[in-house]
Amino acid sequence: MNPLHLSSQLCFPFYAISKEIIKRYRPLLAPLNLTYPQYLVMLVLWEKDFVTLKSIGERLQLDSGTLTPLVNKLISTGYIEKTRNPEDERQLVIKLTESGQQLQQQAKEIPAKITEVLGLDEEEYARYKEMLDELACKLEVKGGKC
Amino acid sequence: MNPLHLSSQLCFPFYAISKEIIKRYRPLLAPLNLTYPQYLVMLVLWEKDFVTLKSIGERLQLDSGTLTPLVNKLISTGYIEKTRNPEDERQLVIKLTESGQQLQQQAKEIPAKITEVLGLDEEEYARYKEMLDELACKLEVKGGKC
DNA sequence: TAAAATTAAATTGTGCACAACTTAAATATA
DNA sequence: TATATTTAAGTTGTGCACAATTTAATTTTA
């Protein structure tokens, strides 16, 4: 077992599976005019509206260099708006538009469709999910359960 | 348990952990003048030299739009060379330079350093690896063990 | 064997991802 | 309370990732 072989790496299946899962999201998200990272931002906002760019970034592990253009895209698509916090003008406060709120109804079908296209049953899904949450804790990846 | 919550998604920990792992590779690969995707290409070539661009792409699940500029970067760094297969001029054959072969010696330290910075013991590493390989099979992600 | 279909790379364009830096606002401290 | 420090976004530049298209070589088939 050569540790320099691709098949010995833990990193590679993560990289490959992550890309594969995002690929399977693409046709489901395209009708909503969303990319996968944009969908993540919408998930955060559907959980809690009126949040700062900074807090979205902490949740998704993305910096302003990624989020600023991404948020501008979502604004031009019409799903969100940005204002400044009057008590701290540095902070950008993101809120859903009417259209962004309504989109949640369409998006509700996506989780079920995804488990379908991944071809995993409920038990498998839960087992993988648990293992990943555990590893996320170990690696201290924020936005998770610990 | 709202299925539209970020914390319910299988995709997100994959996305976040994958980015986190790549982030931890970065300082280890920087002294070798490699990015993570470039390191993956080198891993493939250290396993088997003189392979086509197409076969590298199949192994890593990357298309020519990604690989062509990446390979050109590795050429300008001096680790690989490209020639055409004289029996089929469409095919690009990639081979390691002297420098690219020597790099393997330095790279041999990386797997051990990575397990160290990930903070996983051998048992944990093996357990996660097994589960990922299993999922890769289920999702029919090529380049894996099935 | 000439035309059609297929294949391998390359090209073009969009959208992340992130490092490094800049700008402006708020807070801390001398 | 001026000055220094910190903080939140924004900007710039590099490097993937991938869809869609183009180009050129090879193979198929009419």
UniProtKB/TrEMBL annotation, chains A, B:
One of its GO terms (molecular function) is DNA-binding transcription factor activity. It comes from the Bacteria. The keyword Zinc does not apply. Residues 7-137 form the HTH marR-type domain. GO terms for biological process: response to stress. SUPFAM superfamilies: Winged helix' DNA-binding domain (SSF46785). One of its GO terms (cellular component) is cytoplasm. Pfam families: Staph_reg_Sar_Rot (PF22381). It is found in: Cytoplasm. Keywords: Cytoplasm, DNA-binding, Transcription, Transcription regulation. This is MarR family transcriptional regulator.
